[in-house]
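Fold this sequence, please.
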Amino acid sequence: MLKKTNKIITSAQNPLVKSLVKLRENRMYREEQGELIVTGAKVIAEMLSFFSPKVLFVERGFSLPWISSVPCDIIGVSPEVLKKITGVVAPDGVAALFALPPPSKLEKLSYVIAFDEIADPGNMGTLLRTALALGWEGVFFLPNCVDP
C-alpha cells in the first residue's frame, strides 16, 4: 500500500531537516539511528531493487515515472531544503531516507575484500565499484577507514 503525504517542507530550520543534516554529517548519529540519506535519482532508482526507502524527499516540480510507485511517504521540499538535506550545491531533485542495512556474515563467501586506512571517499567508491564489477561478494572495513 502506498503512503503519500501532502506535506511540504520549505524551511531549513524544520526539525526533520535538522535531523537529516545530522544524519548526513555525523557517522555516530547515523549508526545510532540506523538510517542514512541517499541523493540522486539514478542511485536511488538502483537501490530500489534491493531496499525500500522510508521517505522520499522530492523537490517541488520534479518528476520521474518511478517516484509515485515507491511504497513510502513522499515529502515535497523546496530547492533550498533539498540542498540543505543533501549537502549538494545542485541536487537533481530527489533524496531518500533509507534504513542502514545490517552487517552480514562473510564466512561462506569466496571473494571478500578488506579495506584498511582508506581515507578518501572517492577512492573507496572506486574500489567498491571495481570489486562489484569483478564479482567480489563482500567487503570488510577495518577501523581506520572513511565512513562507507
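The beta strands are 8-9, 35-39, 55-59, 73-77, 94-99, 112-115, 138-141. The helical segments are 15-25, 27-33, 41-47, 79-86, 121-133.
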